[in-house]
Amino acid sequence: MSRRTSNLSSGSDQGTGGVTGDSSQEKQKKLLQADTGHFNMVRTLHLADLITELNGFCGFMSVLSSMRYLTNPEDNAPLWAALIFMPFGLFFDFMDGRVARWRKKSSLMGQELDSLADLISFGVAPASVAFAIGIRSPVDHLLLSFFVLCGLTRLARFNVTVAVLPKDKTGKSTHFEGTPIPTSLSIASLMAYWVSQGWTHENLPFGLAAQDTIFEFHPVALLFVLWGCLMP
């Protein structure tokens, strides 16, 4: 997670870059608070924000690809597309911070956009792929929901605490509390391996526990629970 607003908000850390960021933010405040005007919100966006939007685009395309796979499970192409879109989302998540620091421009909406895009690309998208490949009992639903909610909570807490976290000379936070949500791509990579081996649906690793009861679930779903516990 690039967290562009926190990286550029401090004048002492960024030199003149911080001044530029403060001036830019004041302009954005006036535009966002204006009662009239054409495309007020669009005019507040920077290039880095548009790159963040591409992160969210990749995440949503991954979700749609998972849904498309469900309409025809015989065709694995949409499933592979769902998995491939997630690393592209990570690329844009990395690039938006680089562009913001290069241009020395911060955005009031940048931090919020970053978190929302990350939730889609690295929270909802992996859970959607898991559902598509067969992790879909009622208990599985609760376990996957727990994972997504942990990601949501982790991102919300970061947004609240980022201003007080220690910064390095470039203005970047020196540490994070909890595992960053993009690390969920590790689970996506594992699911990609399962798909390549044909380990989906009835062939999922470790099978189905408590079968034919209301508590039946896929043990591999516990991996999402574990990852969720590492995030907040």
TrEMBL record:
Q: Which PROSITE patterns match?
A: CDP_ALCOHOL_P_TRANSF (PS00379)
| InterPro entries, alphabetized | CDP-alcohol_PTase-I (IPR050324), CDP-diaglyc--ser_O-PTrfase (IPR004533), CDP-diaglyc--ser_O-PTrfase_fun (IPR016271), CDP-OH_P_trans (IPR000462), CDP-OH_PTrfase_TM_dom (IPR043130), CDP_ALCOHOL_P_TRANSF_CS (IPR048254)
Q: Where is the composition biased (Polar residues)?
A: 1-13
Q: What is its EC number?
A: 2.7.8.8
Which GO MF terms are attached to this record? Answer: CDP-diacylglycerol-serine O-phosphatidyltransferase activity
Q: How does it sit in the membrane?
A: Multi-pass membrane protein
Question: In terms of one coarse class, where is the protein primarily found?
Answer: endoplasmic reticulum
Q: Would you indicate the residue range of the signal peptide? A: none
Enzyme class at the top of the EC tree: transferase
For this UniProt record, the keywords arranged alphabetically read as follows: Endoplasmic reticulum, Lipid biosynthesis, Lipid metabolism, Membrane, Phospholipid biosynthesis, Phospholipid metabolism, Transferase, Transmembrane, Transmembrane helix
Q: Which GO terms describe its cellular component?
A: endoplasmic reticulum membrane
Q: Which residues form a coiled coil?
A: none
Biochemical pathway: Lipid metabolism; Phospholipid metabolism; phosphatidylethanolamine biosynthesis; phosphatidylethanolamine from CDP-diacylglycerol: step 1/2
Q: Name one GO biological process term.
A: phosphatidylethanolamine biosynthetic process
Region labeled Disordered — which residues?
A: 1-27
The reactions it catalyses are: a CDP-1,2-diacyl-sn-glycerol + L-serine = a 1,2-diacyl-sn-glycero-3-phospho-L-serine + CMP + H(+)
Cellular localization per UniProt:
Endoplasmic reticulum membrane
Q: Which family does it belong to?
A: Belongs to the CDP-alcohol phosphatidyltransferase class-I family.
The record's section on NCBIfam families has:
pssA
Q: Which PANTHER family match?
A: CDP-DIACYLGLYCEROL--GLYCEROL-3-PHOSPHATE 3-PHOSPHATIDYLTRANSFERASE-RELATED, CDP-DIACYLGLYCEROL--SERINE O-PHOSPHATIDYLTRANSFERASE
* Name of this protein: CDP-diacylglycerol--serine O-phosphatidyltransferase
Q: Which organism is it from?
A: Talaromyces rugulosus (Penicillium rugulosum)
